[in-house]
Amino acid sequence: MAIQIKNLSYTYLKKTPNEVEALHNVSLEIPENKITAIVGHTGSGKSTLIQTLNGLITPTSGTIEFKDFVITNKEKKNKRIKELRKHISIVFQFPEYQLFEETVEKDVAFGLKNYGFKENEAIEKAHEALAKVGIDESFYKRSPFELSGGEKRRVAIAGILAIDPEVLILDEPTAGLDPVGSKIILDLIFELNKNGKTIILVTHDMDIVLNHADHVIVINDGAIAFEGKPSRLFSDDVSNYSIEIPQLFKFCKLLESHNVKIDIDKIRTIDDLVDQLRSRHG
Ligand SMILES: Nc1ncnc2c1ncn2[C@@H]1O[C@H](COP(=O)(O)OP(=O)(O)OP(=O)(O)O)[C@@H](O)[C@H]1O
Ligand SMILES: [Mg+2]
């Protein structure tokens, strides 16, 4: 297991009249080298959960374990957080919060310098990371604040890639992007996973979950409502979770109800369905 979460709770504004218990007694395992999707209605606790995973917020109670790192509610014990963030990195829901340097290349190089790389090495690695996300040289000296939403997100991802963490967490990486922009980001994420990275993806897009997630976690009002394979989730009653069952999955269920023999657990894309129909029905 890449990450073990045990009895995790988190309360915002604790001991004030406005306190909100955003996570309640969450226990989870995030599998290594897989794509795990985290879904659930707005305000359910997804962003809070992922921010606890690399110590951006300290649990109110419970623990998070990754290799020999442990995060608990005892701030003093969490001294290795900076080191942990080299292994588990987050691309935030609003990438503009992540960008702050005067040029794109400096922004991507920032994290590397923080980890002790010299300026020229950091810039060189930043250029490599920018190439991976499809941002060319003409952007290097531009201000990150003057980019489009999709470009900002790619620069934010490059900043994380440059650090080369084992676990990449992306909070709604395609929100607000057009289909081409979304595809560029998603293809990049899946490529990274193929090359061995553990991916945690917060998303409201169930097509992404069906097409790409190995494992899916549903959070409902700060608690885990479901954990398992996407095909099992979509076969469940999801009416309470603000989840839209993908059209492809509905169509497969319809075929099954008409006695068309398909192996629904292995169908992630239309091509998978077509292949199965071809091989079974000549
Ligand atoms: N900084 C904060 N201060 C106080 N309450 C907060 C804060 N951030 C989030 N909350 C509350 O905690 C709960 C969980 O919020 P969170 O941002 O984790 O939800 P989410 O599942 O990521 O939602 P979305 O899909 O809208 O991004 C919500 O009730 C929210 O209002
Ligand atoms: Mg969120």
Task: Tell me what the structure shows.
The chain has 282 residues and is an alpha/beta fold. It folds into 2 domains: 3-102 and 156-242, P-loop containing nucleotide triphosphate hydrolases (Rossmann fold, 3-Layer(aba) Sandwich); 246-282, no CATH class. It has 10 helices and 10 strands. It has helices spanning 46-53, 81-87, 104-114, 119-132, 149-161, 179-194, 206-212, 230-235, 247-257, 270-281, and strands at 3-12, 20-30, 35-39, 61-66, 69-71, 88-91, 167-171, 198-202, 215-220, 223-228. The strands form 2 sheets. A 6-stranded mixed sheet has the order 6-7-8-3-9-10, sandwiched between helices. Strands 2-1-4-5 form a 4-stranded antiparallel sheet, covered by helices on one side. Helix 6 (179-194) links the parallel strand 7 (167-171) and strand 8. Helix 4 crosses helix 5. The longest helix has 16 residues, at 179-194. It is globular and about 65 Å long. The mean pLDDT is 92.
Distance between the termini: 41 Å
Please tally the β strands and state the result: 10
Uncertain runs are: none
**Element-by-element helix/strand order:** EEEHEEHEHHHEHEHEEHHH
Strand percentage, roughly? 15-25%
Side by side, the strands of the main sheet go 6-7-8-3-9-10
What CATH calls the topology of the largest domain is Rossmann fold
Describe this protein with a few key phrases.
single chain, 282 residues, alpha/beta, Rossmann fold, 2 domains, six-stranded mixed β-sheet, four-stranded antiparallel β-sheet, 10 helices, 10 strands, globular, binds adenosine-5'-triphosphate, binds magnesium ion
